[in-house]
């Protein structure tokens, strides 16, 4: 069984108009949501073995929030790769990136942006998925990446988790 997790970055800050879209950081809500989702992933034994993350500031900060939640449990070895192509990527580009970078990960997390993440989650799950900020969609397939990526109907939706309101 392989697990693919798709995560939309946490809520970003629009206050500084001098920043490009690529440079926007997380706002206060986003900085709270990312570690909450990291806690949820840890509690559900979903800490990834490999992460592919967009190089935008808000996706990197989302990753750092997840890692903060995992730091108290350092037994998991997580390999992180920052991938420029994931910035505002289409579902096809996300799938191509997974194909080229999965490295046979048991649990792969991709951190990116809408609309691509939402469209891909919908395509793979066969259900309409709305991915608001910091949402994580968890999908499973058996057992080989190449087979699962060539037959997109092989994926089964396991979770669609949203940050809990405090």
Q: State the major sheet.
A: 6 strands, mixed
Question: What percent of residues adopt helix (DSSP H or I)?
Answer: 25-40%
CATH architecture: 3-Layer(aba) Sandwich
Silhouette:
globular
Poorly predicted regions are: none
Q: How many domain units?
A: 1
Tally of extended strands?
Answer: 6
Computed CA radius of gyration, to the nearest angstrom: 15 Å
> Structural class, please?
alpha/beta
CATH fold field value? Rossmann fold
Please tally the helical runs, counting DSSP H or I stretches of 4 or more residues: 5
CATH superfamily: Phosphoglycerate mutase-like
List SSEs in N-to-C order.
EHEHEHEHEHE
**Could you name the CATH class?**
Alpha Beta
First-residue to last-residue Cα separation: 34 Å
For the biggest β-sheet, the strand order reads: 3-2-4-1-5-6
